[in-house]
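[audit] Reproducing an earlier prediction to check determinism. Same input, same settings, fresh worker. If the tokens differ from the archived copy the diff job will pick it up downstream; this log only records the rerun itself.
[audit] input (225 residues):
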Amino acid sequence: MTFCVYTEAMLTRLLDLFFPLSSLTGVEGTWLTNDEKAELMHALSTIMIPASHLQKHGCTELDELRAVMEYNATPLLHCAIHTWKYRRIRAFDDMMTSLIASLSVPENLERDCVICPVPLHWSRTWDRGFNQADILAQQLSISWQREVVHLLTRTRATGHQAHRSKQERWSALTKAFSVKKECIIPAEVILVDDIFTTGATLQECAKTLKAAGVKSVRGVVLARG
């Protein structure tokens, strides 16, 4: 045991030497400073978008969207989410779950409502090592006292969405999801993802769920782009 602890300490020192920690604003020695955490928390401003507004933008199957904040509320949010997802820095788990935990529970949730993270394709999960939507969903489950159920699977890889146009995003995601056959279909589902931009991902997930018998689908995200 002592040898393992010693070896781990030596490895950490070597990594710090060749790949020094650097925060979002360039402060060395940490991934996230207290000031950066405070700025992110200060940007919280719960956003609730009703179905009537979502429908005008093509999200006809989504009954509501709740976001922790606007994506442009602070430049630090862009950097934090990018570092978390694409640099695969798990040190940001706690910060991101703290943000999603700030959302209050809707008063009119169905008793059998479940929380469902937007799935990644298996190849993306294998490459990244985690699904950020699943981490957020697990925290929301604790906060809202609802079970996480992985109702959906991604039937094919759809590539990176970040640099695609709205039309390209919607086309890429058409029929990209399916409901797992062994799942019991609930009356209501809370779909969880990190960012809502064009709405293509949540729309396609909601469409798939409703085709399987779900009556109501709400979206919850960290940020609305």
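[audit] rerun output stored. Observation attached for the diff report: The first strand starts at residue 47 and ends at 50.
[audit] end
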